[in-house]
Amino acid sequence: MAKQALIVWGGWDGHTPKQCAELFAPLLTDAGYHVTVKDTLAAYADEELMSGLDLIVPIWTMGQIEKEQWQGLSKAVFSGCGIAGFHGGMIDSFRNNTEYQWMTGAQWVSHPGNCKPTYRVTIADADHEITRGLSDFTLPDTEQYYCHHDPGNHVLCKTTFNYEDTSEHYARKYKIGTTHPFAYTKAWGDGKVFCACWGHTFKDFDVPEAREIVLRGMKWATR
Predict the structure, then answer these.
(1) Which of 63-77, 85-99, 169-183, 206-220 has the lowest mean pLDDT?
(2) pLDDT at residue 115 in the model
(3) 140-186 pLDDT, tens per residue?
(4) CA 51, 52, 56, 62 torsion: positive or negative?
(5) Span 10-32, mean pLDDT?
(6) For residue 32, what are the β-bridge partners?
(7) Beta strands in the chain (DSSP E)
(8) DSSP state of 132
(9) Are the CB atoms for 91 and 107 separated by under 8 Å?
(10) CA 170, CA 60: separation in Å to the nearest integer?
């Protein structure tokens, strides 16, 4: 029987949520999943839908999540459904909901350099099934996320900040050479959690390693 996956997309258009959903839905379908795609957070409050899921892929930046929606999402993951995602679609969502941030394992804070950097992502755990056999890779002209991270996260990839933005918005200069977690796994109850900090737009996934790690992360998190 096919694994049941739910993609929920929406929020800020700058993160190209629709295009990202259109990218990963067929990749999951080709991997044997039955994929349901929704563009409303009301999906999380649909008890019948949520109870039958094996994987949730959130692609929703910022916004507000209602109490019933959050409870439905948390219950599904805590009960064993996996959740896997990337960038602002997963870790810059529902900024007022700290429980959501606890579940996802990180929260966006800033992106020193904004959208100017071309930077490297290095494999921190080459033995994990999500990263095994893959090499370090470069992401061109995109956002290099700075996040607050759960210290319990298992770090799979890292990045080093190599650009110092001197604009007024980033007056607090971030130290060049600082290494930061950039993909990780954790748990929420019985559910497995995966997140990659790249994926500012769907164009990041033109880089094969960036796309493959996220797809493997989705498979790994699946119930």
Answers:
(1) 169-183
(2) 67
(3) 989 888 899 999 999 999 998 876 555 555 445 556 678 899 999 99
(4) negative
(5) 98
(6) none
(7) 4-11, 34-38, 55-61, 82-86, 106-110, 119-123, 137-139, 146-149, 154-160, 179-188, 191-196
(8) T
(9) yes
(10) 25
Sign of CA dihedral 120, 13, 40, 88: positive
Tokens standing for 79? 């009960």
Strand pairing partners for 123? 157
Whole-angstrom CA distances from 186 to 55, 73, 114 are: 15, 16, 27
Which string of DSSP letters, residue by residue, matches 84-102?
Answer: EEEHHHHHSB-TT-HHHHH
Torsional class of 22: left (φ above 0), alpha (ψ -120 to 50), beta (otherwise)? alpha
Q: Comparing 21-30, 83-92, 113-122, 196-205, which segment has the lowest mean pLDDT?
A: 113-122
In the block, tokens 């990218």 appear at 23
The pLDDT tens digits of the residues spanning 120-146 come to 999 999 999 999 999 999 999 898 888
pLDDT of residue 9: 98
Question: What count of other Cβ atoms lies within 10 Å of the Cβ of residue 157?
Answer: 25
Name the amino acid, one letter, at 73: L
Write the DSSP string, 1-14. -PPEEEEEEEE-GG
- By C-alpha distance, which of 184, 190, 182, 132 is closest to 158? 182
